[in-house]
Amino acid sequence: MRAIIIEQYGGPEVLQKRSDVPRPIAGPGQVLIKVVCAGINFMDVHTRQGKYANSRTYPVRLPCTLGMEGSGDVVAIGAGVEHLSVGDRVAWCIGWGSYAEYAVISAGLVARIADNIPYDLAAASIFQGATAHYLVEDIARLHAGSTCLIHAASGSIGQLLVQMARQRGARVFATASTPEKRALVGQLGAWQTMDYSHGGFADDIRLATDGKGVDVVFDSVGKATLRDSFRACRTGGLIVNYGNVSGSVTDLDPMELGEAGSLYLTRPRLADHMADAATVQRRADAVFAALLDGSLKIEIEGHYSLDTVGQVHERIERREQIGKAVLWV
Predict the structure, then answer these.
(1) pTM of the model
(2) Distances 106 to 8, 29, 45, 73, 315 between C-alpha atoms, Å
(3) The dihedral of CA 96, 303, 220, 136: what is its sign?
(4) How far, in Å, CA of 41 to CA of 70, rounded?
(5) How many CA atoms lie within 13 Å of 4's alpha carbon, on the beta-carbon side?
(6) Lowest CB count within 10 Å: 25, 35, 176, 239, which one?
(7) Which superfamily does CATH assign the domain made up of 143-267 to?
(8) Domain residue spans of the chain
(9) 63: cis peptide before it, omega within 30°?
């Protein structure tokens, strides 16, 4: 079958388009899926770069087929799988192998999708949608009257966080790197937008909240913003660090959290909040229902082929991608 694989970590040049990859076989607890669409994500770039080389949460190892999100049709079922059937239309995330014609995925990570959900929309939304859902619902527990700051809010997850937070009645502040991106998140419902390329956003937040700071900061940027995120947060507030696109913070003393106002800092991962098939289906149903009724919107920036995956990876690394890229397999 055709697939995009890597045999070593590195830049886009390590991506190999192969047509001789053996079709995988579903083992116990797994399903074989004929892939229709795959989402292209920053997480795929990080996999290619080797950032998960030693991860226990996401144990993907070389050589591997890239792509951790997709949609398609179940064509075979392994022993012990009871909630899925051959012919089901499905979507999944954090199960690698979707840059290929067929993928074997753990059944516990697979959600059924309704006939009125297009494959490309399912592949574009299940990873970011499930991530935003658990961050808002399980971690931050936003509600009417909450205040939050969302960094990199023009990104795929950031856009969904803005919309979900607003739906729950929260007052949303958002950062983005360009005027165009800030205008976009303003249209999605952010009350105030600002630049995150310098620490001044924390001063803006303090000014806008009468010196108190926000209840929650969603920080996917990491090194460049985290300490100023502390300054933007209220006493006893919550910092949710769910990404590190600017680099990891390796010199943090827990005393800093106390000095910043007895803050809580968490670094959650989606895998721990997609622990069973029922939870995966519940999150997928919530996201897809919101997309269908129009209360949630996700922009598919473009549709691509296996031949152009490297170009999309380069654009993602340069942070030129606004909206979600989808691969037709």
Answers:
(1) 0.93
(2) 24, 6, 22, 14, 30
(3) negative
(4) 11
(5) 26
(6) 25
(7) NAD(P)-binding Rossmann-like Domain (3.40.50.720)
(8) 3-127+274-328, 143-267
(9) yes
